[in-house]
Specification:
Blueprint lengths: L17 E7 L6 E7 L7 E7 L5 E3 L6 E8 L5 E8 L9 E6 L6 E3 L9 E8 L6 E7 L10 E4 L1
Antiparallel strand pairs: 1-2, 2-3, 3-4, 5-6, 6-7, 7-8, 9-10, 10-11
Length: 155
Amino acid sequence: MRGQFSIQSNCLSGGADTLEAKTFVPPDDVNLTFTVYGVNKSKNTDVYVLNTKSGEFKALTSSPHHYDEASGAFPDGLYTCVKHAPIKNSAYPLIDLFKVKLDGSGEMQRLTYFSDYKGYKASNGVVSDDGKYLCFQLGKDGQEAGVGFGFFVMD
C-alpha cells in the first residue's frame, strides 16, 4: 500500500456531489487522476490529480459551466486525456477529447473534432502504452458520456 489517505467530496473547494477515480499516471503510477462531479452543486465537473505518496491533490481543470472528465493518461506522465465541453442545457453535452497538462497549468490541446458535426461526440479516450495511438468511442447527442456506438483508433 502506498500510503493511507482519504479524499471526500466535501473536502474539495465548494463541495461536490461525487468523485470518481480514473487512472494512474505512468511511468511511475504515483499520481492518480480523478473527476469531481457536481462542483459547487452544479452540472460542472472538473479533473484533479492526486499524489498517492503525499496525499496532496490539485485541480487540472477549473472550467465553470463545462464538463471535464478524465479519461486516460499519456505514457510520458505529462498529460492526461480529458472529455471536455461547455454545458449549456444538457448534463450530457457534445464532448470532444483534449490533452491536458498534468502540471496544473490548465493547458489544453484539442484532439478530436466530432462535436463539430451535429449530433456527435467523441469520448472515453484510451492512450496506448507507447503513446502512438488513441482509441475512443463515437457518442450521440443526448447520451451519457460513457455510451458508445463504435470506436476509432487514431495515430
